[in-house]
Amino acid sequence: MSRAVTAPRPGPYLGIDIGATKVLVGLVTPDGRLLAHSDRVVHSNEGLEEVLARVHEGIGRLGSTAPPIAAGVAVAAQVDPRDGTVLYAPNLRWRDVPLGPRLSKELGVPVRVENDVRAAVWGEWVHGAGRGSTEVLGLFIGTGVGGAVISDGRLLHGARFAAGEIGHSTLVAGGRRCHCPNRGCLEAYIGGWAIAERAQEAVADDPVAGGRLVETAGGGTAITAATVATLARAGDPLATRLANETSDYLAAAAVGLVNAFNPERLILGGGLLAHWPELALGVPGALSERCQPPAARAVTVTFAALRHHASVIGAATLAAASAR
Ligand SMILES: [Zn+2]
Is residue 142 located within the same domain as residue 235? Predict the structure, then answer.
C-alpha cells in the first residue's frame, strides 16, 4: 500500500501514537528527526472523546512550530488504512471508529491511520534499524507481542488488515491460554504478561525456589517480567530458568518466522526487549544453526533503533508517503 519515500514534500509531519494508557505526539521532519514531542499525556481510557481530548492536549504541548502537512496516527488496533477506520481495538474498547476522517476534520490536514507495530516497523525501516534493506521483519515484544512484515518495500496488510499478528502464531499446540481465542500462542509464553504469569505459577509450584522472586516483588501475585529480569541478572536459579526458557521460545519463534518470510533484516523491538535485551542473545546463533540455509544466509538481526518513538516517527513517515 505504501512505498518508500523518495522525495517527500518538506515537512513537518505530525505523528500520533495512541496506546492503551497514553498518547505520544511528535512533529517529525521528512528525514525522520523529531522536532518536538510530548510523551507524558496519560488518558483514562474513558472512550473516544476523552482519548481525542488528550491527543489535542499533546499537540498543544508541542509549542509553536511550522504547521504540519499531514498527520499519521498509530493505534494499538486492527485498522483499515484505506479509510482510517479503527476496526477493533480491544484495549481501547473501540470498534469501527472512523478515526482518520474525524481527526482530519479537526486538524485540517490529511490523516493516515495504521496499526502501531506496523507503523513502528515502517519507521524503523525508513529511518532506523531497517535502513538500506527491502525485506524486513519486525518482532516487537512488550506486554503483548506484535509484528510487521515489509516485503519489496510494501507493508503486508492481509485480507482484513490483520497480517503480522506474529504474537498469535501457535508455538505449542494446546498450550498456555492466550488473551485471544487460541491456545499456545507465542505471546502466551514471551509477552510481558505471560512471563509474569509463568513466574507466578512456578513460584506457587515451588515456594522455596521462588522465595527471592516473591520477596523482591512483595508477593507472589506481584511478580512481573521485570522482577524475573532483575533476579535472572542476579543469578537466582528459578529466575534464570524462566529467562532461559523465554529465550528458547523467542529463538524457536524467530527460526520459524525467518524460514516463513526470508527477511534481510530481523528487527527486534518493544519495551520488554529494550529493558531485557539478553533474552534475544541466542537468536542469531539459532537462526544460523536452524534456519534453512538460504534464509539463514540472508538475515541480519538488529535491535530497534528508534526506541519508544518508533510508532510516532513511523506514523508521520507513512503520512508523508501518503501525502506525496
Ligand atoms: Zn493469542
Answer: yes
9-18, 65-74, 287-296: range with highest mean pLDDT:
287-296
Please check whether residues 107 and 195 belong to one and the same domain. no
Domain assignment present for residue 3? The answer is no
State how far the Cα of 39 lies from the Cα of 72, in Å rounded to an integer.
16
163 Cα: distance to centroid of ligand 1 (angstroms):
14
The 8-class DSSP code of residue 26 comes to E
Domain CATH number, residue 268: 3.30.420.40
83 shares its domain with 191? no
CA of 280 to the centre of ligand 1 (A): 21
Q: Is the pLDDT of residue 101 over 80?
A: yes
Ligand 1 center to 211 CA (angstroms): 30
Read off the pLDDT of residues 163-198 as tens digits, 9 standing for 90 and up. Answer: 988 999 999 999 999 999 999 999 999 999 999 999
| 107 phi/psi in degrees, rounded to 5 | -95, -20
Q: What is d(CA 286, CA 135) in angstroms, rounded to the nearest whole number?
A: 20
Domain count of the fold of the chain = 2
